[in-house]
Design the sequence.
């Protein structure tokens, strides 16, 4: 199926494009969020969202969706903190409830794993938030401004 990309025009910077092409219709919520979590474009699912660890492509390289205009600033860190805090709480409960007293090496390993978990969850959360914002058509006036 060939996708027709919209013409680049300064006057027509609205997403989704005005064309009534069924290829431009956003998929359902589950698909949109799932594609964002796996770091693929929420619209087409082909191209990556990120141009590095957390830097977002301005537009999708496959479908020209305005990924860089989605204001995913503060929400992904909050989501990552909530998810990782549940694991921290699990260790605290284990320490008090089961009288588990890990040594310094075990604590260092647990902290390193929690940092890696936080980094992974942060990237997945940012992808999901970009997908949600793209589906809601909530974008900035200026890209990354």
Sequence:
């Amino acid at each position: 199926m060939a996708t027709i990309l919209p013409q680049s025009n300064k006057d027509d910077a609205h997403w989704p494009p005005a064309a009534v092409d069924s290829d431009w219709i956003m998929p359902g919520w589950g698909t949109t969020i799932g594609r964002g979590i796996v770091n693929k474009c929420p619209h087409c699912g082909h191209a990556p969202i990120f141009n590095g660890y957390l830097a977002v492509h301005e537009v999708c390289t496959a479908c020209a969706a305005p990924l860089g205009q989605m204001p995913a600033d503060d929400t992904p860190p909050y989501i990552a903190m909530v998810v990782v805090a549940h694991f921290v709480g699990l260790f605290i409960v284990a320490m008090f409830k089961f009288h588990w007293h890990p040594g310094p090496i075990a604590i260092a390993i647990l902290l390193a794993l929690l940092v890696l978990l936080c980094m992974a969850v942060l990237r997945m959360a940012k992808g999901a938030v970009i997908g949600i914002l793209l589906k809601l058509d909530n974008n900035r006036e200026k890209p990354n401004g």
Remarks:
- Confidence is low (pLDDT under 50) at residues 1-12.
- The first helix runs from residue 29 to 37.
- Residues 26-136 form one domain.
- Residues 26 and 43 are 6 Å apart (CA to CA).
